[in-house]
Amino acid sequence: MTQRLYLSPPHMSGRELKLVQDAFASNWIAPLGPHVDAFEREFAALVAIPHAAALSSGTAALHLALMLAGVEAMDEVMCSSLTFSASANAIAYCGARPVFIDCDATSWNLDPDLLEAELERCTRAGKLPRAVLPVDLYGQCADFPRIEPICERFGVALIEDAAEALGATCAGRPAGSFGRAAAFSFNGNKIITTSGGGMLVSSDEALIKRARFLATQARDPAPHYQHSTIGYNYRMSNVLAAIGRGQLMVLEDRVEARRANFDAYSAALGGLPGVAFMPEAPYGRCTRWLTCLTIDPVAFGATREDVRLALEGENIESRPIWKPMHLQPVFASCRAVGGSVSERIFERGLCLPSGSNLTVADRGRVIATVRRCCPAVRP
After folding, report:
1. Mean pLDDT throughout 62-86?
2. Helix/strand/coil (H, E, C) string of the chain?
3. d(Cα 345, Cα 342) in Å, to the nearest integer?
4. Domain check: are 327 and 230 in the same one?
5. Beta partners for 337?
6. According to the model, what pLDDT value does residue 2 have?
7. Distance from CA of residue 283 to its chain's centroid?
8. Which residues form the domain of 182?
9. Is 89 in the same domain as 109?
């Protein structure tokens, strides 16, 4: 069988092993340690934010960010609808209710116009949300030059879900540098990985200190184990931090490789009838973590699902665009603002193999399979 092409596999640089060996040699293999401290410093410098806490997952980072913004039971938090479930799950962990805001067609991220109109409606009703949680989708920042002043005007905390966007920029600033705090993910499919892990960043030193306290089972400063508040087991291990340090060294190479994937796919497939690629918003640089396209079945002559199954038949992994949160059964009772844009993107959208270790030949397999699905280009 032809070798399987995965959607976004881990890509080690070779530098990670030496750092992991150092962790083993020093016997710092449990949570915390010198590599955790160094990873936090190096990551904070990279995203131009002074304080960072290395955690067990991006979801853990979101949960702590929401808690530290004062999100409690029965609060509302406005959130992008077109996203992975972790964004909304973290809101639910706090006992709060997400309010899902549709995306715009320019960036596929939270629509600032809908956000502003909904905050105005909430103001008239006398019940503002506790926070706004925009998601930087598929490597592209939300429109923070518009979203940030809107949140400031209404006095609502802004938390950036940058889990998918490390290395992206917005208005000349790195992803993760907007709002009160930002969360990143190092899951195995992300642009860099620690196999599993995340990072919470903030300009607020007290917030990060409190996050570290809560993430380490909220142990009080005492010679015995004493706890005055509920804590969590959310800290990153020294071994995983060592991997992350090695990955950080090649981040820009990984971004360039992913953008090269997009350029190749766009050049080869962008002229097909009914095919359109996720646009790059004019306010920043997208990492193209995943190359995403939409397929108009009438113009193309086949559906997104037809193409996905054809790729699977060639042992090539692809994936539909995130199913919007307002369509998920678990959140069926939650309020949604708009929804038609994200629904259309989901219905037609497909993510192509986008790993930074993808070869020209690998891309050729993907391109040839997609082209065979289009009757207009069949021999």
Report:
1. 97
2. CCCCECCCCCCCCCCHHHHHHHHHHHCCCCEECHHHHHHHHHHHHHCCCCEEEEECCHHHHHHHHHHHCCCCCCCEEEEECCCCHHHHHHHHHCCCEEEEECECCCCCCECHHHHHHHHHHHHHHCCCCCEEECECHHHCCCCHHHHHHHHHHHCCEEEEECCCCCCCEECCEECCCCCCEEEEECECCCCCCCECCEEEEECCHHHHHHHHHHHECCECCCCCCCECCCCCECECEHHHHHHHHHHHCCHHHHHHHHHHHHHHHHHHHCCCCCEEECCCCCCEECCCCCEEEEECHHHHCCCHHHHHHHHHHCCECCEECCCCHHHCHHHCCCCEECCHHHHHHHHHEEEECCCCCCCHHHHHHHHHHHHHCCHHHCC
3. 5
4. no
5. 101
6. 87
7. 18
8. 16-250
9. yes
Q: What is the pLDDT of residues 154-182, one digit of tens each?
A: 999 999 999 999 999 999 999 999 999 99
Can you read off the two tokens belonging to residue 133?
Answer: 């949680």
Per-residue pLDDT at 32: 87
Q: Is the pLDDT of residue 320 over 70?
A: yes
Q: Does any domain span residue 209?
A: yes
CB-based contact 350:318 (threshold 8 Å): yes
State the total domains in the chain.
Answer: 2
Considering 219, 250, 281, which residue would you say is the last residue of a domain? 250
Residue pLDDT, tens place only, 180-209? 999 999 999 999 999 999 999 999 999 999
Indicate if 97 and 163 belong to the same structural domain: yes
Strand partners of residue 292: 351
Query: Is 5 within a domain?
Result: no
Q: Read off the CATH number of the domain in which 315 is found.
A: 3.90.1150.10
In this predicted structure, what is the pLDDT of residue 377?
Answer: 85
What is the tens place of the pLDDT at every residue in 335-349? 999 999 999 999 999
Same domain, 61 and 23: yes
Please provide residue 173's backbone torsions phi and psi, each rounded to the nearest 5 degrees.
Answer: -110, 150
| pTM given for the model | 0.96
| Rounded Cα distance, 110 and 112, in Å | 6
Quick check: 173 and 199 in contact, CB under 8 A? no
Residues 234-270 have pLDDT tens digits of 999 999 999 999 999 999 999 999 999 999 999 999 9
